[in-house]
Amino acid sequence: MSKQSLPITPIQACTAAPLVREPLTPAAAVELASVFRALSDPVRLQLLSSIASRAGQEACVCDISAGVEVSQPTISHHLRVLREAGLLESERRASWVYYRIVPEAMARISRILDAHTTGTDAAVPA
Amino acid sequence: MSKQSLPITPIQACTAAPLVREPLTPAAAVELASVFRALSDPVRLQLLSSIASRAGQEACVCDISAGVEVSQPTISHHLRVLREAGLLESERRASWVYYRIVPEAMARISRILDAHTTGTDAAVPA
């Protein structure tokens, strides 16, 4: 078989689906990843859930740890991480510190995930 | 002032808000944390967003990496993490591998976050 008669198999191009909206920018991805990192620990999720499960989505620090099998310093550390990620805010009243969910923060992440589910326009994190 | 006349300041108890729903169980928290861990990397979020931003929420592996400044082996690693977390599924067609968002996985996380925002009943992960 001569070189000339070798069959040429064309490389099939992939079918590129068009972009229907702008993907996350690198800066937005860094910011959003830090929030997900705060949520990526089972103890932090339990603490957050413990607060969110109470009326008014607020709990005294003395109640938050019920059912969570870690020491008080560890709980304090995890609450600080959640607060620094903007998911919780705290307030001292008399002798006690109360923690409360920041609904806007949770709703924002939920909206972004929804946009990634339905393909609707996502609210890129500010 | 005699001992007897020292004023006694009662320790004020905290105001415990009642539970309005069951918090996450430890097992559910472990499972959910692993999904958030998959989402806690900026490059993974950019890849996921790149797929979700295309029509049909599906993209060829050759298109996913556009605008993401990492090597192909690193992209492959991150896509595997997202797939193992149940957030993506992949399919080979002809010479190309296509990745697509698993909408149920994203919607489930979004529902859980919504429940933590509004205080409505959360769907505890199965």
User: Which outline of chain A best applies?
Assistant: elongated
CATH class of one domain in chain A: Mainly Alpha
Average pLDDT of chain A, rounded to a whole number, is 83
Give the DSSP E fraction of chain A (strand runs of 2 or more residues).
5-15%
Which class do the helix and strand fractions of chain A yield?
alpha+beta
User: What's the main sheet of chain A like?
Assistant: 3 strands, antiparallel
What is the number of E strands of chain A? 3
How many helical elements of chain A?
Answer: 5
Chain pair sharing the greatest interface: A-B, 63 and 63 residues
Alpha carbon gap, first and last residue of chain A? 64 Å
**Residues in helices of chain A, as a percent range:** 40-55%
CATH superfamily of one domain in chain A, by name, is: Winged helix-like DNA-binding domain superfamily/Winged helix DNA-binding domain
Q: Over all CA atoms, what is the radius of gyration of chain A?
A: 24 Å
- Oligomer classification: homodimer
The secondary-structure element order of chain A is HHEHHEEH
